[in-house]
Amino acid sequence: MYGLYLAIVRHKDHLLFILALTLSLLLILNNTSPEMGVVRGKAAEVVSFMSSPITFIRSLMFLEIETQILRKKNLELSLQVESMLNLQVENDELLSMLDLKKRTKLIMKPARVVNKGLQPNLLSIVINVGFEDGVYKNQAVLTPKGVIGKTVEVGGHSSIVQLITDLNYRLSVRILPSGATGILRLIKNGKAQIREVQKNVKINIGDKVVTSGFSDIYPSGLPVGSVSGVFDDRGSFQKIVNLKLPNNMSSFQNVFVIIEKINEMD
Questions:
Q1: Beta-carbon contacts of residue 91 (< 8 Å; ≥ 6 apart)
Q2: In Å, what is the CA distance from 134 to each residue of 59, 109, 163, 220, 257?
Q3: Domain boundaries, given as residue ranges, for the chain
Q4: DSSP code, position 217
């Protein structure tokens, strides 16, 4: 108690100032005269001016929080849309495969692409079927759009497929409606060509290209692509035919492996 008394005596000037200021403010605020109304208005303007930076900073903080929430929501919606688009693409691909299965009497094994090829000198993919599923080496692999390659290595439940876009890939093909035959191979920059085509054969851009049936691997009539250009090979009796491949080699997820050639494509 004595300590409190000493503290009051020591700070009596400050306490009297605070008390007087409080009483003055109470009197001013309770005064209803017009002059005091003007004073109160000015005081409100001063308080508003002094508090505006704090209010601005607080609004910026809320805006940043709101922006983060909106960014998160936008990311979630983008991922949902991307997932739905991927499911739509996969659904369309599976429907096309089902339609192909109905249109042919070939015995085919459906498979899914699980990885890219592991060999640096071979452009290939890995699929999830092997000899336990009736798949063996040198069997044709295709999608509803056309041939994509052949099996080159087969394990129990997985196989490596050499892609048609590999530089060492060769395929005997036939150009319709002319019936001309040739050997398909890939050149640089992802462009495919058909060589050893007789020069006197009439070939037009857009002509359909299918497997010739001369190979033990590929039955005749499997779609391969379409003609995108025709050139005469100078100094020989052959044409060079550029080919447009129907498959995007980086997009398909499901394929068929022809495990038995009972009949050709309709």
A1: none
A2: 68, 8, 20, 21, 10
A3: 107-266
A4: S
* Class (C level, CATH) for 107-266: mainly beta
How far is Cα 247 from Cα 38, in angstroms, rounded to an integer?
82
In sequence order, the 6+-apart residues with CB closer than 8 A to the CB of 208 are: 175, 176, 177, 223, 226
- Between 51 and 232, the more confident residue is 232
Around Cβ 116, how many Cβ atoms within 10 Å?
A: 11
Handedness of CA 31, 36, 42, 43 (dihedral sign): negative
Structure tokens that stand for 105 in this block = 């009497």
> What's the whole-model pTM score?
0.60
- Specify the residue for token string 């090979």: 233
Give the Å distances, CA to CA, from 167 to 99, 109, 123, 191, 218: 31, 26, 8, 10, 19
Query: Measured between alpha carbons, how far is 193 from 165 in angstroms, rounded to an integer?
Result: 11
Contact by Cβ (8 Å): 160, 151: yes
Most confident of 98-112, 159-173, 252-266: 159-173
Q: CB atoms < 10 A from the CB of 109, how many?
A: 17
| C-alpha distances out from residue 117 to 110, 206, 247, Å | 19, 32, 17
Beta bridge pairs of residue 142: 147, 256
Strand pairing category for 124-127 and 140-143: unpaired
